[in-house]
Amino acid sequence: NPSLRALAERAGVRIGTAVDMAALADDRTYRRTTAREFNSVTAENVMKWESVEPQRGVYDWKPADDLVRYAHAHGQVVRGHTLVWHSQLPGWLTTGVADGSIDATELRGILRNHITTEVKRYKGRIQQWDVVNEVFEEDGSLRNSIWLQQLGPSYIADAFRWAHAADPKAKLFLNDYNVEGVNAKSTAYYELVKELKAVGVPVQGFGIQGHLAIQYGFPGQVAENLARFEALGMQTAFTEVDVRMILPVDEEKSATQASYFRRLLDACLGARSCKSFTVWGYTDKYSWVPGVFEGQGAATPMDEEYGRKPAYGELREGLAAG
Ligand code: G3I
Predict the structure, then answer these.
(1) d(Cα 281, Cα 269) in Å, to the nearest integer?
(2) Alpha helices, DSSP H, located in the chain
(3) Which segments in the chain show pLDDT lower than 70?
(4) How far is residue 220's CA from residue 224's CA, in Å, rounded to a whole number?
(5) Whole-number Å distance between alpha carbons of 164 and 172
(6) Cis before residue 248, ω within 30 degrees of 0?
(7) Which residue's CA is the nearest one to ligand 1's atom 42?
(8) What is the complex's ipTM, to 2 decimals?
(9) Which InterPro entries has this protein been placed in (predicted)?
(10) Domains of the chain in sequence order
(11) What gap in Å lies between CA 266 and CA 304, rounded to an integer?
């Protein structure tokens, strides 16, 4: 039985997963399965700012370096996640901004330094970077983060320019959730991309996270959404796919989940711009979902014992057909 990875390689696409570095260190089955099933990996947490610079000027690259080395050893590409986000910022940074000891001018320099340092460290080893993550609200207005408050909307263009200068070959992505289909939020990204491109900002990709929940149904107009970004010359990617449900699992929910995974995969395979499809963890053993959504879970293609669910089968069939 061919792995997802073998089928993806035949189809000329990347099948990826988020990687939990604690699990990679402790769990042999996790290590083996990650290598066998995937040809792309994303750090679930260890490339985020709070992880790489826990104290100002004190860096901890060890877990991120470990992932990049693991990927190289197993012939996998790496998606870098993520440079600019409102969440998982180091305490020294949020505190400094809140108490006024870091002003806007200094903050801009700190951001520039963060992007430059991290992107340069992995220069040539990251295929796609999520440069800015989750910058819009559901209604399409810019998210009210310390970046917007202190630096104004130009922080987005600056981030892409700084990342590009640090690694001109990495593909630079916007990334968000609830942007699978055509809606106010994805349309805000579409307009932003047009504006950025019009003034020559180096932005090459639109990352669609793909955190779905079966109780909310499947998003509409996914193919149309991919097509409009493709028409702007953008690459697209599904970057964090999982499909949660209200527990307990039953056969019907499991079948619905499988069809949602398949429909997102088919949307990717049906678009020339989409060559990368990443799940946000592949075993329920390490999924972030139950910790955040009480009473929900079972969101990944394998159960806690690495048993393959119908969703795994649909991914396999989709890749085999693609
Ligand atoms: O590292 C500490 C550890 O030292 C401590 O013992 C433990 C106790 O709670 O917490 C650990 O940190 C946790 C971290 O994951 C690593 O496990 C944080 O509390 C927890 O908040 C953090 O959650 C991550 C979340 O982002 C943070 O917002 C999830 O694992 C991760 O899956 C999730 O990923 C995000 C993407 O980056 C962006 N898109 C949405 C996606 C899901 O929320």
Answers:
(1) 20
(2) 4-11, 21-26, 28-37, 49-52, 62-73, 91-98, 104-121, 146-151, 154-166, 184-198, 222-231, 251-269, 289-292, 310-321
(3) none
(4) 9
(5) 8
(6) yes
(7) 288
(8) 0.93
(9) GH, GH10, GH10_dom
(10) 4-321 (3.20.20.80)
(11) 26
One DSSP character per residue, 255-290 reads: HHHHHHHHHHHHHHHTSTTEEEEEES-SBGGG-SHH
Residue 246: CB atoms within 10 A of its CB come to 14
Q: Check if 22 has its Cβ closer than 6 Å to any atom of ligand 1.
A: no
Q: Could you say which DSSP state residue 140 is in? A: S
pLDDT of res. 1: 87
Element (H, E) at 174: strand 171-176
What does the pLDDT look like over 176-207, one tens digit per residue? 999 999 999 999 999 999 999 999 999 999 99
Of ligand 1's listed atoms, the one at least distance from the Cα of 48 is: 37
Q: Residue 77 CB: number of other CB atoms within 10 A?
A: 18
Q: Which of 53, 118, 180, 240 is catalytic?
A: 240
Which residue bears the tokens 């792309």? 40
